[in-house]
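Researcher: We plan to redesign the surface later, but first we want a full-length starting point. Tokens attached.
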């Protein structure tokens, strides 16, 4: 498991007087690598994305992997303040824009942001007005 994913999860879910245990999971937490059988079982385009924010800068990146295993990486540095969650959204959007530009019709999107995945699937709601348009 990526350490930042765990840190983000704990930071977004503090234990206080309003704490309620979450019914969440970290998918594939026992997976260390993907073998050839997994790659054959799920052919098609894949998009991996990640974003990170700290006091100095915000960086986002994505890698689009074709059905023939060609890799199309893209990165960007954002020059204004974003939270880690906002950086994750921007990284996902960056990768999806690249997929649209290439003409990909169907893509499996893979990321380590539990909050982003659940919000996109409509399972969780956002309270931050800046994130509602996403």
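Model: Full-length starting sequence:
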């Amino acid at each position: 498991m990526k350490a930042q994913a765990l840190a983000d999860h704990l930071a977004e879910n503090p234990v206080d007087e309003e704490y309620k245990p979450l019914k969440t999971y970290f998918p594939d937490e026992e997976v260390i690598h993907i073998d050839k059988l997994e790659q054959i079982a799920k052919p098609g385009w894949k998009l991996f994305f990640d974003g990170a924010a700290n006091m100095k800068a915000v960086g986002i990146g994505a890698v689009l992997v074709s059905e023939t295993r060609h890799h199309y990486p893209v990165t960007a540095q954002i020059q204004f303040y974003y939270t880690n969650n906002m950086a994750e959204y921007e990284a996902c959007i960056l990768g999806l824009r690249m997929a649209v530009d290439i003409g990909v019709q169907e893509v499996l999107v893979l990321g380590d942001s539990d909050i982003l995945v659940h919000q996109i699937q409509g399972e969780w709601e956002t309270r931050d007005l800046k994130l509602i348009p996403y």
